[in-house]
Amino acid sequence: MEKQETFYLTRIILFGHFVDRLKRFYVDYFGFSVVEEISDQWIVLNAGQVEIAIHKIGQGYEPEDGKAFRAESNTKLVFSINHNLEDFRQRLVDNGVVMSAVKSFEGINSLFCDGEDPEGNVFQIEERLG
């Protein structure tokens, strides 16, 4: 019998304009550690079982002078938190991070909150209850 190949997700790559700013955001707020780095070009962060890599966008995608780069993506990064989501959300809001209200859904024993990193990548924080 042929051995079946096994696949698993190890890394997600976000393309960004200001790699160092995105690095600081995820290190400062989420506590992720740096695994690899090429200054202003590439960064890999340990985010638990999956790494988040941030790759400098190509010149053809650079924003026009004076305009902020905003990600255009249909992807949402989801992070789990093992302590009070409301407190963490408030810390982000107090530091100018765009965050939605905390919400819950019938039949799911979790609280959720969406936000945007400095370049508009959407993330969600989930606190599993009990």
Note down, in words, how this protein is organized.
The chain has 130 residues and is an alpha/beta fold. It folds into two domains: 1-59, 2,3-Dihydroxybiphenyl 1,2-Dioxygenase, domain 1 (Roll), CATH 3.10.180.10; 70-130, 2,3-Dihydroxybiphenyl 1,2-Dioxygenase, domain 1 (Roll), CATH 3.10.180.10. It is 17% helix and 33% strand. The chain has two helices and seven strands; from the N terminus they run E-H-E-E-E-E-H-E-E. The strands form two sheets. A four-stranded mixed beta sheet has the order 1-4-3-2, with helices on one face. A three-stranded mixed beta sheet has the order 5-7-6, with no helix packed on it. Strand 2 and strand 3 form a beta hairpin. It starts with 10 loop residues before the first strand and ends with a strand.
**What average pLDDT do the residues reach?**
91
Largest sheet, strands/sense/barrel: 4 strands, mixed
How many structural domains in the coordinates?
2
In terms of structural class, how would the helical and strand content be classed? alpha/beta
Strand order of the largest sheet: 1-4-3-2
CATH topology of the largest domain: 2,3-Dihydroxybiphenyl 1,2-Dioxygenase, domain 1
Write the layout of secondary structure elements.
Blueprint (H helix, E strand, L loop, with lengths): L10 E6 L2 H12 L2 E6 L3 E5 L4 E6 L19 E6 L3 H10 L15 E7 L5 E7 L2
Parallel strand pairs: 1-4, 5-7
Antiparallel strand pairs: 2-3, 3-4, 6-7
Which features does this protein show?
2 helices; 130 residues; 2 domains; 7 strands; 2,3-Dihydroxybiphenyl 1,2-Dioxygenase, domain 1; alpha/beta; three-stranded mixed β-sheet
